[in-house]
Amino acid sequence: MRLAGSIHCSFAAVLLCIAACDAGVSHAAKPASAPTPAPVPKNARYKDASQPVEARVEDLLARMTLAEKIGQMTQAERAEARPGDVTALMLGSVLSGGGSGPSPNKPESWASMIDAYQDAATATRLGIPVIYGIDAVHGHQSVIGATVFPQMIGLAAAGDADLMKRIGEVTAREMAATGIYWNFSPMVAVTQDIRWGRAAESLGEDAATVGTLATAYVGGLMAPIAPDSAQILPTAKHFIGDGGTAWGSSRQSIMGVQYRLDQGDAQGDSEALLARYLPPYKALIDAGTGSVMASFSSWNGDKLHGNNALLTGVLKERLGFKGFVISDWDGIQQLPGSFEQQVTTAINAGVDMAMVPKDYRAFVRVLTDAVNKGTVPQARIDDAVRRILRAKFAMGLFEHPRALRSLQAEFGGAAHRAVAREAVAKSATLLKNAGALPLARGKSIFVAGEFADNLGFQSGGWTLQWQGVSGNGEIVGTTLLEGIKQVGGATTAVSFKEDGKLDGRADVGIVFVGEPPYAEGVGDRDIDELALDRREVSAIDAMRSRVDKLVLVVVAGRPQLLDKVIDKVDAVVMAWLPGSEGAGLADVLFGDKPFTGRLPVGWPASAAGYQRADAPLDMRCASLVWALGYGMDVSGKALGPGRCTR
Ligand code: GLC
To answer: Start and end of every Glycoside hydrolase family 3 N-terminal domain (predicted)?
Structure first.
């Protein structure tokens, strides 16, 4: 609610007063007990960048009031909090949720928006910069014109650590161009069940691969961007066990979709679960990752957001994590009890910063009350703030809080897109080839399927919008069909009809099938829902009768069931979710680049026999048509032993 405010106050002052009053943390009339904080000397030690980080942390912490400390622990969403709120409540962080950004959606608008928050933050007594967070999970894909990389599952198929590092570097530069230095990425779930709507965001089912590739990516994200730049802060998420929940254990329902796995419950012997899910976190912490996001999911029935044994006992004490834990989107409010009880439980369990997009004022109020009552110890507040300040000092945010507009010239440029095109080619995974590939230039090619010419479909979720988009209106890039035309060149006759009912005949047909975009549990599917739909089977049948050789290309963030069509096609290529640079697929289809992709997850043979990755190995192997690690080159040579020696 916004009051009219008195006509003689400036608008900003009115906002300050309203925001403060809303928070119940009045700045206008201080309670008698709260002493007026001392003015900050210009030569305060924390302001001296030559001082050691820990010395700066302790100097600043000692100067902070409780309100300033709790403000640092509070993250609001940009659509809910104005710069004036940042000043009034001394907020430590602001985020963009999926699809939440300025209009027009272009780099300069983002830079201006975030610099306004920084101006508001540095106008506070202590001048602590805000840290602005976003999901730049396959490139800085919230911004129109950004380079959109393949989703992580495809990068896992590529299995190239040097490429991961370069993708991290490009992502960091496009983020810095907009003034954003905190990436809620990488997700280091070890995916046990491809029915999970977040399998596409993961680096697959093998913990060692997840750790190796995520570490390389974080190395790129944290690489120096420019002499006058802050460093990106990566986030290891979602701690812990988000990729191993039991089918049907989720209580969440969003957009009318009952989640079945996402935000569910990981069940089993705790040490055995830790042995599977903890290694990627250790790897990322050892690589210097400064933030960890708590998982919505539970661990043997205990919500991670309130789990002291895991957030503090395992993450902070056993692994020695010195960064800070951020809660997930209103994840605190999924805990039992009143909001004050939820906040108390989460902060005492080890959450250091609360992602409370709308409820940030209430959060400040109830946490202040909890500290004043002693239900949240002052020492816990100081520990949380110490961790947050440590991250902000270490990444150079105090010295370089603003957007690097000089990088906007390269934003989404050819050099960045070349890295993405390389990633598309390296992620493509060849699973069957009976003389259909490589394509020959100068021949005739028929193309079909709704995934052939749709940038939104080939990018997947977390692209411009939380749930992704359809069509070619906003994403800047090259569709898979356009790529085939470009790489095939003038001598290759390419014809496209979505249903495959083209006139005449062609040497080769390519049918694109897959899954339209989704994100999180909205993408939870039962195994039989991963079969091709009627229209896709119809397009394959239509094409079969019109071409000599038929290639099936799957555009999805996880395996699809092909048992009904595998004998109808001469080749199968898994393109994953390639993102904006669709020509990268044509590079391997025409043999300009070799197929190198290998499966980061096993591929189920059918719905009937489906087994999760954590099933007993013999049962798991018997359920797969292609095992973890399988892939072939165009000559038919296997690129590595599938994990199941059958
Ligand atoms: C979402 C996701 C998390 C993301 C956060 C902010 O619900 O679970 O991965 O980083 O909210 O968008």
So the answer is: 65-390
From the candidates 515, 520, 581, 587, give the one annotated as an active-site residue: 520
In the three-class reduction of DSSP (H, G, I as helix; E, B as strand; rest coil), residue 291 is classed as: strand
Instruction: State the average pLDDT over residues 365-379.
Output: 98
**Given the residues 68, 193, 265, 328, the one annotated as active site:** 328
d(CA 490, CA 484): 11
Average predicted confidence (pLDDT) for the chain: 94
Model pLDDT for residues 51-89, shown as the tens digit of each residue: 999 999 999 999 999 999 999 999 999 999 999 999 999
| CA 606/CA 26 separation, integer angstroms | 62
**387 close to ligand 1 (CB < 6 Angstrom):** no
Q: Decide: 237 in ligand 1 pocket, CB within 6 A.
A: yes
Higher pLDDT: 12 or 549? It is 549
Ligand 1 atom 6: the closest Cα is on which residue?
A: 97
Residue 104 pLDDT class (50, 70, 90 cuts) = very high
Q: Above 50 in pLDDT, residue 577?
A: yes
Mean pLDDT of 339-367: 98
Ligand 1 within 6 A of CB of 483: no
pLDDT value of position 11: 39
Rounded to whole angstroms, the Cα distance separating 202 from 316 reads 24
Instruction: Please indicate whether residue 135, judged by its CB atom, sits closer than 6 Å to ligand 1.
Output: yes
Residue 395's nearest CA partner among 235, 216, 226, 222 is 222
Answer for the pair 60, 46: CB distance below 8 angstroms, yes or no: yes
Residue with the smallest CA separation from ligand 1 atom 7 is 329
455 contact partners, CB below 8 Å, separation of at least 6: 471, 472, 475, 477, 479, 580, 582
pLDDT of residue 238: 98
Determine whether 520 is an active site residue: yes
Tell me yes or no: is domain 414-626 CATH 3.40.50.1700: yes
State which of 135, 235, 255 you would mutate to test the pocket of ligand 1, scoring each by most atoms of that ligand within 8 A of its C-beta. 135
Q: Which CATH class is domain 11-21+46-402?
A: alpha beta
Examine the residue annotation and report whether 85 is marked as an active-site residue of this protein: no
Chain region(s) in the chain for CATH 3.40.50.1700: 414-626
DSSP assignment of 384-405, as one string?
A: HHHHHHHHHHHTTTTT--S--G
Q: Is 380 in the pocket of ligand 1 (CB under 6 A)?
A: no
pLDDT band at 127; cut points 50, 70, 90? very high
> pLDDT tens digits, residue range 539-565?
999 999 999 999 999 999 999 999 999
> pLDDT digit string (tens) for 255-290?
999 999 999 999 999 999 999 999 999 999 999 999
Structure tokens at 35: 């002493």
Nearest partner of 234 among 247, 223, 246, 244, judged by Cα: 223
- How many Cβ atoms from other residues are within 10 Å of residue 60's Cβ? 25
The pairing of beta strand 302-303 with beta strand 298-299 = antiparallel
- The boundaries of every CATH 3.20.20.300 domain in the chain are 11-21+46-402
Q: Is the CB of 184 under 6 A from ligand 1?
A: yes
Output the residue whose Cα is nearest ligand 1's atom 1: 329
**What is the 8-class DSSP label of residue 148?**
-
Ligand 1 atom having least distance to the Cα of 201: 9
